[in-house]
Design a protein that fits this description.
Largest sheet: 5 strands, antiparallel
Structural class: alpha+beta
Oligomer: single chain
Number of strands: 10
Strand order of the largest sheet: 3-2-1-4-5
Radius of gyration: 27 Å
Strand content: 15-25%
Helix content: 40-55%
Number of helices: 11
Order of helices and strands: HHHHHHHHHHEEEHEEEEEEE
Number of domains: 4
């Protein structure tokens, strides 16, 4: 730390250091055991602080003091490392983009994938909230259903749908209202929609080092968004295979687990209690269903998430709606259109 301070103050003759240790960050520490005192106090003595005030601006002084406090906290084991986002517990659209982002080395592609991660996180979250609003109020219609929606429209639908759920006093996502609200605030505060729009235009062109600056700035912010929504985006999402009655055990649902970045989804079997007015949903093959936090209620995400064979690659895919009757194959990046019940390439 004293070496950093030396560089900041442009001092090369050690005129400011203390040969006799006083617990200051500028102690010489001739005996290495004295290092413990310096680190554990994270103290800057009045003389050193005056020297800093005469040579550094307030922002630099505050940053240095923060760094000292972090070193002390680390020494006392007060810093808890954050758990990494477990991508294979997230809903597949977000999990897929997290996996792609981690595996990319080219900085321009990496930055574009970061923007895609933001887009799909907003879209997936919005569609889930909106699906619940539509289940409660079939006449409700947001802008994403009335035109080709921009990213800004998806964010606005996020906000309006969340407000509508609160107005309806719905408790399906009650425990997530605070996280969802904070996520919306983060999106607007950091102007992430503007970032995406400004950097995806045809005229946008930067040198790799400039793209890297953008990535280093916004990667922590977008990761913070995903972490805020982590629990919400880890609710159980399944694709129905079969529902069967089990004598003395209620009903057993066989389904594919869609919380994964792997396109070969794992089969699950678990006991469910069908809700009478929704039992048909659990009985419909390939219906895509989201369970709430206590697993006692569930929400159909049709037609926003559907299962079909992709006409571009011929493989069965779980598709997410883009707009109107057009869908996205998240795994391969294909765009698909449904015309008269038939799938075709866009």
């Amino acid at each position: 730390m004293e070496n950093l301070l030396e560089q900041l103050l442009c001092q090369s003759e050690y005129a400011f250091v203390h040969e006799t240790p006083i617990g200051c960050i500028s102690d010489m520490c001739m005996y290495k055991t004295d290092l413990n005192l310096k680190i554990l106090t994270a103290y800057i003595c009045p003389n050193c602080l005056d020297l800093m005030k005469n040579n550094l601006d307030e922002e630099s002084i505050n940053a240095f003091q923060t760094l000292c406090e972090l070193a002390r906290d680390y020494a006392f084991n007060r810093i808890k490392s954050e758990k990494p986002i477990e991508e294979d517990k997230l809903l597949f659209p977000v999990a897929v983009y997290l996996r792609k982002l981690k595996g990319e080395s080219d900085i321009e592609k990496k930055f574009n994938l970061l923007l895609d991660l933001f887009d799909i996180t907003v879209r997936t979250t919005t569609l889930i909230i909106y699906a619940r609003v539509k289940e409660l109020d079939s006449d409700y219609k947001a802008v994403v259903e009335t035109k080709i929606p921009s990213l800004g429209d998806w964010v606005e639908c996020f906000n309006q749908s969340l407000k509508k759920l609160k107005e309806l006093n719905d408790n399906f996502f009650l425990s997530f209202f605070n996280d969802l609200g904070e996520a919306y605030k983060l999106i607007t505060r950091e102007m992430l929609v503007n970032l995406r729009n400004d950097t995806r235009g045809h005229s946008f062109s930067l040198a790799p080092y400039e793209v890297n600056d953008y990535f280093q700035k916004y990667n922590p912010i977008i990761n913070s968004l995903v972490k805020l929504l982590n629990k919400f985006l880890s609710l159980n999402l399944v694709r129905v295979i079969h529902l069967r009655h089990k004598r003395n055990f209620g009903y057993e649902l066989e389904a594919y687990n869609l919380n994964s970045s792997n396109p070969i989804f794992e089969k699950l079997e678990f006991i469910v209690t069908p809700i009478e007015i929704k039992q048909e949903v659990l009985s419909t093959e390939n219906e895509i269903i989201l369970f709430n936090e206590n697993q006692k209620d569930y929400l159909s995400l049709q037609p926003y998430l559907i299962h079909a064979n992709c006409p571009s690659c011929g493989q069965p895919r779980t598709l997410i709606i883009d707009y109107d009757n057009k869908y996205l194959d998240i795994q391969m990046g294909h765009r698909i259109e449904i015309l008269k019940g038939e799938l075709s390439r866009c």
